[in-house]
Design goal:
With 363 residues, the protein is of the alpha/beta class. The chain folds into 2 domains: 10-183, VC0802-like (2-Layer Sandwich), CATH 3.30.2130.30; 198-361, Vaccinia Virus protein VP39 (Rossmann fold, 3-Layer(aba) Sandwich). The chain contains 10 helices and 14 strands. Strands 2-3-1-4-7-6-5 form a 7-stranded mixed sheet. β6 (156-163) and β7 form a beta hairpin. The chain binds S-adenosylmethionine. S-adenosylmethionine is lined by residues 195, 197-198, 228-234, 248-251, 269-271, 285-287.
Amino acid sequence: MSSALPAGLLVSGLLAYCRTGFEKELAAELDELAASAGLIGHVRAKPGTGFAVYQSLEALPATAFEDLADWRRPVFARQLLLWFAHITDLPERDRASPLRDAVKASRQRFGALVLETPDTDEAKQRSGFCRRFTAPLSRTLEQAGALRPDQTDLPVLHVMFESATTAWLAAAMPQDSSPWPMGIPRLRMPGGAPSRSTLKLSEAFITLLSEDERQTSLRAGLRAVDLGASPGGWTWQLASRGLHVTAVDNGPLSASVMATGMVEHLRADGFTWRPPRAVEWMVCDMVEQPSRIAALVADWIATGRCRRSIFNLKLPMKRRLDAVAQCRALIHKRLASVGPYDLRIKHLYHDREEVTAYLALRR
Ligand SMILES: C[S@@+](CC[C@H](N)C(=O)[O-])C[C@H]1O[C@@H](n2cnc3c(N)ncnc32)[C@H](O)[C@@H]1O
């Protein structure tokens, strides 16, 4: 976590965004995170709003949140911010002045400004307003000395419009927060990829792996296995980067995927098939019970059949957090004696009733 969190900023709590319908899970995660850091407060989350808030009993220096303000930690958070003001009754004819006053009252300077809304159909109607209002609000904040775009080491100011008259002001350090507005990476569907689920693996690569890990592991010439590959969206992601892919599925692979010349298609059962020699990647998108997938992936990693894996865990509608915790426990049981490992689990923008995970032994 960053040591660059502004010590002088008084923070009221955590503000996090999620897919609508996942507010309860996100709130429970924020509550647990805050409790693990010894904070006292409560969570607020209304179903269908696309965000959750943790409010500390008293405002605390930002450094009190140092160990928990990393957006990668909560599975269901698309973004995680430190909020310091909640402004209601914004007047329609002059929203800038009360926002400027609240930012000035924080005594914190910011290096960049992001205006956003939760990801709901209702709130999306305000995205045009956010675009139009960015330049005038930036000017107002710059004139007040609160926004210094030349100072990139300063935190980013997020203004989240919950409604036309209500906004949350929050701070984030770039290295600890999602780099995309609203926490949503806007990925273009690549020509030649056979299914939209190709975007899920692409998002997983940029969300779950570091730049270094991408460079090391997505090199041309390396080998990968895709379990449950049909019609081939994930296989295409790997093949288009020059990896040789064994695609395991009884279903067909699209012609565009086979045309890459990088793919061998095997009609076999993904649960029992094993590669003749170790591969860099095993990816898995089979629709099955999450605990079965977790056990399979952990076994491939433990026995050295692959170095790393990205896999999808389909969640039950209820008790989603329990399902994720059960998978974590299963993986831990299998790998604890093998060595330290990295397990990163995220509810990606392209995930619906599922989460995507990365697993590798640490070297
Ligand atoms: C969600 S789809 C995969 C989509 C794929 N990732 C893509 O991007 O095009 C799930 C696939 O898993 C396959 N599948 C399910 N159980 C399997 C098993 N035991 N062995 C191999 N494939 C399996 C299904 O045939 C189906 O094609």
